[in-house]
Amino acid sequence: MTSVSGKTKNGFTYEGDYEHANSDRVTWTATYRQSGHFYGMRHGRIDQLMGVSISDVDDAVKDDIEATWTQPR
Questions:
Q1: Domain around 15
Q2: For residues 39 and 32, what is the distance between their CA atoms, to the nearest angstrom?
Q3: Mean pLDDT over residues 49-61, rounded?
Q4: What is the superkingdom listed in this entry's lineage (predicted)?
Q5: pLDDT per residue over 18-41, tens digit each?
């Protein structure tokens, strides 16, 4: 399992983990906070990652974590 963290464009911090579900897919889970207070948790999956570098997978996971939190459903 790999850990990631960051800050969303709307001011929430997140801490998350992801793991490879198979050779071209990762699943992730993230917890969101603002000013130290818990605001929520989300999970997701990214497909079609065959041959993608580790740093690009990290970036893709961070982008998906942010999009899941900031974009309306």
A1: 2-70
A2: 6
A3: 94
A4: Bacteria
A5: 999 988 999 999 999 999 999 999
State the pLDDT confidence band at 67, using cuts at 50, 70 and 90.
Answer: very high
d(CA 19, CA 6): 17
32: amino acid identity, one letter: Y
Cα(65)–Cα(67) distance, integer angstroms: 6
Q: Which of 24, 25, 23, 26 is nearest to 1 (CA)?
A: 26
Comparing 27 with 73, which gets the higher pLDDT? 27
Alpha helices in the chain (DSSP H): 54-70
Buried b (16+ CB within 10 A) or exposed e, 33-56: eeeeeeeeeeebebeebeeeeeee
Nearest CA to 71 out of 5, 4, 10, 7 is that of: 10
Q: pTM of the full predicted structure?
A: 0.91
